Amino acid sequence: MTERTHFFDTKIEFLKGVGPQRAALLNKELNIFTYGDLLQHYPFRHEDRSQFHHINELSELLPGAQIKGRLKDWLITGEGHKKRLVGTFTDGTGILELVWFHGISWFEKSLRKNADYIVYGKPAEFGGRYSITHPDIELLTPENINGGTWQPIYPLTDMLRKRRVDSRTISRMMKSLLEIATPHIRETLPEALITQYRLASKAEALWSIHLPPSQAHLHQATRRLKFEELFYNQLRLIKSKILQKNEFPGQVFDKVELLKEFYDNHLPFELTNAQARVLREIHDDFKTGRQMNRLLQGDVGSGKTIVAFIAMLMALDNGAQACLMAPTEILADQHYQGLKVYAERLGINIGKLTGSTKKKDRRVLHEELQSGAMQILVGTHALIEDAVQFKNLGFCVIDEQHRFGVAQRSRLWAKNEEIHPHIMVMTATPIPRTLAMTLYGDLDISVIDELPAGRKPIKTVHRYDAHRATLFGFLKEEIAKGRQIYIVYPLIEESEKMDLKDLTDGYESISRSFPDVPLSILHGRMKPQDKDYEMARFVKNETKIMVATTVIEVGVNVPNASVMVIENAERFGLAQLHQLRGRVGRGAEQSFCVLMTDFKLSQDTRKRLETMCRTNNGFEISEVDLELRGPGDLTGTQQSGIMDLIIADLAKDGAILKEARKSAEAILDADPDLVTPPYAAIRGHLDSLRASDTNWSRIS
Ligand code: ADP
Ligand code: MG
């Protein structure tokens, strides 16, 4: 082990062909300090250099083309940043222009007229003639005359390019390194997995990813390295989940009285199968004597609240208190009003605490919480303040998880020093399974994947701005039927002023078109009390149209609102569109979502809009979103710290991830501490993995 660690920790400057200057550059630009770092600097794609194209068969559809020919001549043309060197290149079938904007003087000095070269690049056509800008170019030699293999393309920076370090340079370093490193490369996966999944060995994989002899080798190498990465990622997450479970005891909630009373006499509707299943999962956790940390995912309207309430009853039945924390006052109030109805029927004492709770009321609350007289507390993050002390807090529910960090979660834990309360985080932002497995791999996950029966799916349509008159006609009909309407404008921080103008212009045009209809307006620049006032008017049905920015996005419930119009829909991401749409469709009436856009739309935007029109299923939408945007964007800044996968791509590698997770689970099942052979070796590798990911706990 030590020998291995030692070799791969060798400073990169000692590698043949690197030296101190280049080493400094690699340190600074690519964070490559050691042999180990360089080996893990994987190419992000490969170019096919195994075949040649003729100039007369070029097409703009080719991702890249390799051509053998003669550089006849060149000239320098243009001024300022349009200044460029244009070479004339021919292979006997036609003329190709080679264009350089950067490094002109260097190329002028080093290129040779009438010499034979091999060039590679993406062909572009203009006026019947093809050109390649900044082609990869090398002199024709006996070695390269028959073409090469698959050329790896490495992540580089402008500074590196300026200093003439390109993918080829890195390839050469890689070759020197692999030649001396091979005897030191140890297998990191157990033999059984390699056989079971027919994986390439570690050494083979490293050779083939950096110097692929063929496309097949490349494919095998990539698969193996992805598997390894995801395997260790899952191993670590599952292991920390096991650790956490063993470390923290939880209160046992096994008595059921209130729960039974509620089920028998007060349940307002039949639970969906999904709700019942999730409740069983929670109840099973409550019986283990281990502290629960569970994520509850469920689309908007799937009925998470009643699940939370019933789970709270389990706590109350066993002498513990429960709390529910919401991200805003409005939401806290809605939850409070909703739960109070159930609580009163059962004779449960429920309270509400938010930033605007009066001092006098606060004192009473504090006392009742401490004496245990108050059983359920609903509130905003005001309830994590130190002054709020419980007699015996046993269960906390956090609604709309993305607004809360782990810091808050641990402050909730601390509300019961003796024995941490069970925690359930609820989110209405569905995330694809692959992402959930990696992001929340150390939480238990429950999913409500079914809507209550009898819901009418929201009808979603895409309309162009030019058809606004028809839209307004439709809105008038809906208002005449007694419905309410949301009209939402984007609000992106960088252009807040412009957005505000869009919103106010829109508001004016709406007031002109709907002169007799009372309107509300809501945006982020308003004072909190003005916002609450406007929102309250809309909730009470005093206003019919709510013209707003995305501040209404989270959780607000106005069942009488049946139409959601989203202006500039092209500027919203899929997740956000889906969230916004979820504001309607909460009542018995047919609801609609209208996506308004300009005529000119990118392909991605069309895909987003089509997806919205096609389905109401949040999980399906999140899969498309992942595919379009990649995992980094999806998870948001809060979670990006843990997404340090180098080679695996969660958007594409779901199948490999599933196998890797299954393997990790099986191994940890057999040997949770990884102490017996052959698993001790895995543990060694797990421990040696970089500590760059100390923030694995930074979830939710
Ligand atoms: P969300 O998961 O978005 O928080 P809610 O808990 O607010 O959803 O539930 C949305 C609506 O559906 C509420 O009015 C709730 O009373 C109702 N509801 C929840 N579960 C059921 C069910 N099983 N059958 C019928 N209606 C239900
Ligand atoms: Mg909710």
From TrEMBL:
Its EC number is 5.6.2.4. InterPro entries: ATP-dep_DNA_helicase_RecG (IPR004609), DEAD/DEAH_box_helicase_dom (IPR011545), Helicase_ATP-bd (IPR014001), Helicase_C-like (IPR001650), NA-bd_OB-fold (IPR012340), P-loop_NTPase (IPR027417), RecG/Mfd (IPR047112), RecG_dom3_C (IPR045562). One of its GO terms (biological process) is DNA repair. Residues 474-632 form the Helicase C-terminal domain. Keywords: ATP-binding, DNA damage, DNA recombination, DNA repair, DNA-binding, Helicase, Hydrolase, Isomerase, Nucleotide-binding. Residues 285-448 form the Helicase ATP-binding domain. It catalyses: ATP + H2O = ADP + phosphate + H(+); Couples ATP hydrolysis with the unwinding of duplex DNA by translocating in the 3'-5' direction. GO terms for molecular function: 3'-5' DNA helicase activity; ATP binding; DNA binding; hydrolase activity. It comes from the Bacteria. PROSITE patterns: HELICASE_ATP_BIND_1, HELICASE_CTER. Belongs to the helicase family. RecG subfamily. Plays a critical role in recombination and DNA repair. Helps process Holliday junction intermediates to mature products by catalyzing branch migration. Has replication fork regression activity, unwinds stalled or blocked replication forks to make a HJ that can be resolved. Has a DNA unwinding activity characteristic of a DNA helicase with 3'-5' polarity. This is ATP-dependent DNA helicase RecG. It comes from Persicitalea jodogahamensis.
